[in-house]
């Protein structure tokens, strides 16, 4: 596979460097356009049902451009995932670091740990643009066993393990096993909230307002906090 030239920052002093920079910029723009079109299609349909021809036609590029930048359809699919996943997990890490910096005791309050975990995903799901599409893309990755990311999605848990030490510090009365179970249930609540919020509107016959991000986040964090604060399960 031919790799895309790495972007280098340079000041152009003559025509040749300017031409190189212009070419790199066009290549980067083409790559981004392909990813954005692919993200939109993969968010709505399975990996197998989306063809490279559809992607290249909508992105107005030649098939060779996909091969050049990504090597294959699978490589493109993974690039779609990595671009946004890194941003999402970076947001989580930043919120956690900011909460830790505010703490005078070295122990981040439980509510702030949970907000760092849950807020980015909830906020992105309310975004009508690319971030919202990525949440739909992630949901499809979880259920599409033919997806190249199906196994990777379940193995890529390092960004979640980052939260375990914070939870153990603030909840020393809970065993490691119990914390992992409660984290699992919290993630399940997050998943259901971002995938099936419309159902709540129908179940409640409009009583529950799902139109605003902040109240939804407040409720899910409060729910998760209560779950983590529940008494530890007695050992048998």
Automatic annotation (TrEMBL):
Domain HTH tetR-type: 28-88
Pfam families the record matches: TetR_C_30 (PF17939), TetR_N (PF00440)
InterPro entries: DNA-bd_HTH_TetR-type_CS, Homeodomain-like_sf, HTH-type_TetR-like_transc_reg, HTH_TetR, PsrA_TetR_C, Tet_transcr_reg_TetR-rel_C_sf
DNA-binding region: 51-70
UniProt keyword terms in alphabetical order: Coiled coil, DNA-binding
UniProt key word rRNA processing: no
UniProt keyword Membrane present: no
MF term (GO), any: DNA-binding transcription factor activity
Coiled coil feature spans: 78-105
Name by which UniProt lists this protein: TetR/AcrR family transcriptional regulator
Provenance organism: Stappia taiwanensis
């Amino acid at each position: 596979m031919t790799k895309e030239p790495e972007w280098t920052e340079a000041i152009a002093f003559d025509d040749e460097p300017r031409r190189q920079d212009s070419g790199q910029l066009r290549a980067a723009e083409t790559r981004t356009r392909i990813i954005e079109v692919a993200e939109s299609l993969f968010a709505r349909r399975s990996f197998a049902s989306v063809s490279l021809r559809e992607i290249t036609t909508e992105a107005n590029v030649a098939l060779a451009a996909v091969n050049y930048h990504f090597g294959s359809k699978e490589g493109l699919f993974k690039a779609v995932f990595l671009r946004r996943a890194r941003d999402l997990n970076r947001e989580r890490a930043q919120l956690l670091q900011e909460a830790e910096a505010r703490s005078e005791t070295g122990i981040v309050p439980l509510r702030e740990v949970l907000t760092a975990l849950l807020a980015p995903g909830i906020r992105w799901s309310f975004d009508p643009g690319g971030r919202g599409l990525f949440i739909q893309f992630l949901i499809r990755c979880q259920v599409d066993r033919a997806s190249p990311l199906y196994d990777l999605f379940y193995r890529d848990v390092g960004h979640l393990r980052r939260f375990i030490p914070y939870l153990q510090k603030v909840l020393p009365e809970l065993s490691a096993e119990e914390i992992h179970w409660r984290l699992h249930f919290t993630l399940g609540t997050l998943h259901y909230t971002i995938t099936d919020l419309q159902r709540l509107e129908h179940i409640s016959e409009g009583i529950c307002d799902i139109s605003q991000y902040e109240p939804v986040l407040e409720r899910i964090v409060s729910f998760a906090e209560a779950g983590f604060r529940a008494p530890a399960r007695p050992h048998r």
